[in-house]
Design brief:
527 residues, alpha+beta, eight-stranded mixed β-sheet
């Protein structure tokens, strides 16, 4: 097969929403060129996603837009459950400083986020955005480059890519191209979403209100200085005017400014694609999964997809890691996304009460559960579950820190104050509770992996406390800051070079391709 080299690019990304552009920026950080194809010429001007968590803010930091996002974000207090008379049933507080180094919940305006991301994209020579185009075909090829065809005002074009990332939403052409179909997780409701701009003294607690009323369930939140969002489940028959729906939150008899920025109807669904890749074509974001919005994880899940895939793809394209490494994208992200979607469905049924005969019973159970000491604090913690055991999360580690994220405090190194991730860069890292012994230091050096003692990092004690809580003497971190393996406190298993070498060069996975992938992956860090 002869390919026009002018049309050959390492990565083609279909869709320039937040997930697609973030993926391009993360790849650019590794020096990988990409072409982003987008049907719109400019940022879609109306708000859609409005909330994110601290893990995703850490991903935005990795993409190079952490400070810019801070300037447009608004920390939120968390979630309140209200009864039909708007009395508080429970509060699920989110802190202003989560383990990833940012507020646990932040509100934002999606068009502003997209402008921040596109501005960053324009500054990266590795990235090219082609807007106003229609992708017409994606030819998955398990043995070679992937052909992508598109048209614009100048006619038909084609690109050949080493990998294609389908970030093209719920109606994804990429999903169709790889032959994936939806798995229905059995949730479907019709809601109206209303974005309003007003200077009224709106009754608000600087968090999300969820009205647990089976007759009229609703969600309300403050998004910006004078911007608010209401979501109401649709009833059969005529709907009330927006002002009437919002009246319980407005001052009595308010007749001042009240601009409806957007009013649209959505069908909230819970779905997961049965396959997320074919050859070198991958699905990310809404192309791979759809979730109801009740725990604010729709956009977050897509951003996690981008972070999980891009560092692996970089090692395959740049450092010679085998293609089998890319199989861990779906095996890690799909169970994680399914868990979050099911949590959103469960929260949705609990909060809205549902529409069946058991609704009243569920509301009584919910109200009783909210009175259990410590439950609301537990529910307010990180909503992102640990990754399950696999080639890149050591098998057999059922407890402790494996599969979780390392926290990100500020650290002081050589008189310079910086966030932990900026210090660690994009490599694997060993973090130890005490000074690493000679054998561990030698092994880390031979593999091109840093071995750092947390007491030398000059943080506020966060990392040491985290290791103590996880009963760990040391952890091996992946480039995405997920804990790959743990040296248990007082354990003898990983105090010798031989045992560490066995972990880093092999895996207990029964799949030979995955064993080879991990071995080559870690060796590639020395190049």
């Amino acid at each position: 097969m002869t390919i026009n080299q002018a049309a050959r690019v390492p990565v083609v990304i279909v869709g320039a929403g937040p997930v697609g552009v973030t993926a391009a920026l993360l790849l650019a950080r590794h020096g990988i060129r990409s072409v982003v194809l987008e049907r719109h010429q400019d940022v879609y001007p109306l708000p859609r996603a409005v909330a994110t968590d601290d893990e995703v803010r850490r991903i935005l930091q990795a993409a190079g837009v952490g400070e810019e996002f801070t300037a447009i974000a608004r920390p939120a207090n968390g979630l309140r459950l209200l009864d039909a008379r708007h009395r508080v049933m429970a509060e699920f507080r989110r802190t202003g400083h989560g383990p990833h180094g940012y507020p646990q919940t932040s509100m934002f305006d999606q068009p502003e986020l997209e402008r921040v991301l596109r501005d960053a994209l324009a500054r990266r020579p590795e990235c090219e955005l082609r807007g106003g185009v229609e992708v017409t075909g994606i030819g998955p090829d398990t043995t070679g480059p992937v052909r992508v065809t598109y048209r614009d005002d100048a006619g038909e074009h084609e690109l050949w890519a080493d990998a294609v990332l389908g970030c093209d939403g719920a109606g994804s052409l990429t999903r169709e191209a790889i032959g994936a179909v939806w798995e229905d997780l059995r949730f479907e409701e019709h809601w109206t979403v209303i974005d309003v701009r007003t200077t009224a003294d709106v009754r608000c607690w600087e968090g999300v209100d969820q009205v647990c009323d089976p007759d009229r369930p609703a969600t309300f939140m403050r998004v910006g200085e004078d911007r608010y969002r209401w979501e109401f489940r649709l009833r059969e028959g005529a709907e009330q005017p927006v002002r009437e729906l919002a009246a319980p939150w407005l001052p009595p008899s308010y007749d001042g400014d009240f601009e409806v920025v957007r009013e649209t109807r959505y069908t909230f669904r819970a779905r997961v694609a049965d396959r997320w890749c074919r050859g070198r074509v991958f699905l990310l974001g809404d192309a791979a999964h759809l979730t109801p919005p009740f725990i604010g994880q729709g956009l977050c899940a897509g951003m996690r997809d981008a972070y999980n895939l891009t560092w692996k793809l970089a090692r395959v394209l740049q450092r010679g890691a085998p293609a089998g490494l890319l199989d861990t994208y779906e095996s890690e992200r799909k169970p994680h996304a399914r868990h979050v979607i099911r949590l959103a469905v469960a929260m949705g049924w609990a909060m809205t009460g549902g529409q069946d005969g058991a609704a009243a019973l569920r509301r009584r159970v919910l109200a009783a559960a909210c009175r259990i000491p410590g439950l609301t604090e537990l529910a307010g913690r990180d909503l992102s579950p640990r990754l399950t055991a696999g080639p890149l999360v050591r098998r057999g580690v059922r407890r402790g820190l494996a599969g979780t994220h390392c926290p990100q405090p500020w650290v002081n190194v050589d008189g310079r104050r910086t966030r932990l991730d900026e210090l660690l860069g994009d490599s694997f890292t060993v973090l130890t509770a005490t000074e690493p012994g000679p054998s561990l230091t030698a092994l880390a050096h031979s593999l091109g992996i840093r071995a750092l003692c947390v007491t030398d990092l000059g943080d506020d004690g966060t990392l040491a406390a985290w290791l103590r809580a996880g009963r760990a003497d040391a952890v091996l971190l992946r480039p995405d800051r997920v804990v790959m393996d743990v040296v248990p406190a007082g354990g003898r298993g990983f105090t010798s070079t031989a045992d560490w070498a066995a972990l880093l060069h092999t895996t207990r996975s029964p799949v030979p391709a995955e064993r080879t992938a991990l071995k080559s992956l870690l060796r590639s860090t020395t190049r």
